[in-house]
Amino acid sequence: MEHSYSVASNPVYYEEQNLHVLFAGESQTLPRHQLGPKIYDYFLLHCIEQGTGSFRTEYRTYELGPGDCFLIHPGQLVSYVSDPDSPWKYRWTAFSGTEAGRLVHEAGFSPEQPVASCGEGSVIPGSLAGIMKAFHSGQESGHLTSLGYLYLMLGEAAGMLKAHSRLPGRDSQVKRTVKQMIHYMSSQYAHPVSIELMCSSLGYNRAYLSRVFKEETGLSPVTYLLKLRIDKSRQLLRERPELSVEQVAASVGLTDALYFSRQFKRFCGQSPTAYRAVTARKPESKLI
Hints:
The structure is a single chain. The protein has about 290 residues and is of the alpha+beta class. It has two domains: about 5-165, Jelly Rolls (Sandwich); about 170-288, Orthogonal Bundle (Arc Repressor Mutant, subunit A), CATH 1.10.10. Helix content is about 45%, strand content about 20%. The chain contains ten helices and ten strands. It has helices spanning about 100-105, 125-135, 140-165, 170-190, 195-200, 205-215, 220-240, 245-250, 255-270, 270-280, and strands spanning about 5-10, 20-30, 35-40, 45-50, 55, 60-65, 70, 75-80, 90-95, 115. It has a six-stranded antiparallel beta sheet, covered by helices on one side. Helix 1 (about 100-105) packs parallel to helix 3, helix 2 (about 125-135) runs antiparallel to helix 3 and helix 4 (about 170-190) packs across helix 6. The chain is elongated.
């Protein structure tokens, strides 16, 4: 088995960056090829394509093979060594930045849980190869390309790690579900979305979602979404006087201007036109 090693660095360098991919590489290692024990000052993600070996952290030792990934955290004493008979062939990338730790945590990685297993069809090997290709081109656009690939890999890792983590209790699960619903409505209110579409997107039964949402917020999802839209419309009426009532209605996802005006009066006690005239000079409090 012939040894090979190749690495490509990011052509763009920033002194301080929220998230920055430093370099990427690939190697067919030799038998008993070892790195460490040592400490790195950046995150280093490996994906094993062939062979076997051991990865040791300050907490435990992992025996890893094809399809396994391991993430080295900065400041952690680690070592890893290829098997004497079937040495590793792997790809890797290094990244850092002020947001790197938070993203890694959101993905489910930690010094105590640094390993994930890729399933068939995983995007991780191809993403690592894509980062190398982007960096080899020498173009500054490779920096942005590498960030896209990194997000894809961390997104897949989040699905793998959280699927195998301990299921939360009912209370925490309900709160998380309601937060998902609120986030969905807050980001989609400007579109003609429906509660049915939201339930389908989140993968839950409408009756269940409606019940737990009202238990947590005191409002049904339909009422919450409508009040959210009216609240957003009030802001537009105050801050964008050049917009017509019809344009304001459309901007908050209500394409029927007459329906919008009726609902606005229901919640605010006056028409949108009267509200704009009266409140232009007043401080405003939110409905929600």
